[in-house]
Amino acid sequence: MRRSALTLAGLALLALALGAAAVAGAVAGAVPPFLMAFGSKGTAPGTFHGPDNVAVDARGQVYVADRENDRVQKFDRTGRVLAVLGGSGKGPGQFHAPRGVTVDALGDIYVADSANNRIQEFDSAGRLLSRRGRNGGDGAAGTGPGEFNDPRGITTDLRGDLYVADHGNNRIQKLDPSGRVLAVWGRNGGDGSAGTGPGEFHNPRGVALDTAGDVFVADKANNRIQRLDPAGHFALKWGRNGGDGSAGVGSGELRSPYSVAVGPDGEVYVADTGNNRLQTFTPTGAFLSRLGHNGGDGSPGSGPGEFRGDYGLAFDCRGDLFVSDEDNERIQVFGTAGPPAACPPTLSVGRLPARASRGALAASASCDRPCALDFRLSARIHGRRRFIERHRQLGFGVFGARVRLRLPGLARALARSGRHGRLRVRLTASATGFGGTRTVVRERRVAR
């Protein structure tokens, strides 16, 4: 009897330990805590009818493809409406069932104008810049490079290249900032036919990138996620039975995934739309966690952290997650309270040389995205602060600059200081981009 009691106690302790381990394991890759939600069904600004994909720009502003209202709405972090783009039609700047939206490093807005079979580009103030598609984006579908058939998910990289989930053509297209086609990926080189093999797609719905340039695709009708390397070569796939195309409701299985996003730690978030839940995975496809009604069992719900057709996913630079909850006509936000998260350029500054040549020093700096670089070299010479400034504007594809800064009076001051004399100089380098400004200061004693 005593032995049985001990055995039962041991089993209970073991169960508690396993439960604790399961909870600890669930923390990895878990969706951030629910923060807030905004929106309701309607046509007035701030309401939705079929909110589809969502994007967040480098200033923390939120964009929603409000599909059935034929518009894109722009919000601040709290859900306050800032602007409304579009209106029903085929004309320039008008939309018919827009499903995708993204914002590049310059603040330009790209919209997958799905039923018009085109991509429209706007500047940050909402002015139309370009239309891309068959016949210049007149609304006709096409299968040629740079033509679209019901484009849906879209994203951009830091070089300004645009990636489009060309849903009806069963392929991914990559275009440069001018609209020139760089690559087409899919069955038979992306000829428009659907497939179930590695690197083939059937109605791809979402596309996302990680920091290494790997491409993740929500392969909707194949009920799986596929990962391609930066050159578009197949890397891996996952879903039910390793991503064989069948749908499932178990952990790590998918039913019509609509969107995919890469979190700040590299974990992959999937809008498992047909199962009314979010799932998270490692970059290699290992299941981490799920969120939804009844722990993400596949049933719909309307409470915080529950979904009725989660469509779009987007992270801001703080790591907060925005989810378009389509049939609940709202956006849910997961993360922490605070001001909008800004994404200034990452700034790298080279080391100053130890010697000045004729009173001049070379300085170099680079950004990870388009930016304005400002250099200021200063020193105290004969009791007076002297400085010189230079400005360089860097666009897509040119992220670094090298300048020669000739500081007035530096050569003479060094000459008077003698053979071993040195003078302390200060370089202040600033990089300003759409998301803000970052500054780095370098100081060094220099000689002739």
Kindly describe this structure:
The protein is mainly β. It is 7% helix and 42% strand. The chain is built from two helices and 31 strands. It has helices spanning 2-27, 410-416, and strands spanning 34-38, 51-56, 62-66, 71-75, 81-86, 100-103, 109-113, 118-122, 128-133, 151-156, 162-166, 171-175, 181-186, 204-209, 215-219, 224-228, 234-239, 259-262, 268-272, 277-281, 287-292, 310-315, 321-325, 330-334, 347-349, 360-367, 371-381, 384-394, 400-406, 423-433, 436-446. The strands form eight sheets. The protein has a four-stranded antiparallel β-sheet with strand order 1-24-23-22, with no helix packed on it. It has a four-stranded antiparallel β-sheet with strand order 2-3-4-5, with no helix packed on it. The protein has a four-stranded antiparallel β-sheet with strand order 6-7-8-9, with no helix packed on it. Strand 27 (371-381) and strand 28 form a beta hairpin. The longest helix is centred in the first third of the chain and has 26 residues, at 2-27. Residues 1-26 have low confidence and may be disordered.
Could you give the topology of this structure?
Blueprint: H1 2-27, E1 34-38, E2 51-56, E3 62-66, E4 71-75, E5 81-86, E6 100-103, E7 109-113, E8 118-122, E9 128-133, E10 151-156, E11 162-166, E12 171-175, E13 181-186, E14 204-209, E15 215-219, E16 224-228, E17 234-239, E18 259-262, E19 268-272, E20 277-281, E21 287-292, E22 310-315, E23 321-325, E24 330-334, E25 347-349, E26 360-367, E27 371-381, E28 384-394, E29 400-406, H2 410-416, E30 423-433, E31 436-446
Antiparallel strand pairs: 1-24, 2-3, 3-4, 4-5, 6-7, 7-8, 8-9, 10-11, 11-12, 12-13, 14-15, 15-16, 16-17, 18-19, 19-20, 20-21, 22-23, 23-24, 25-26, 26-29, 27-28, 27-30, 30-31
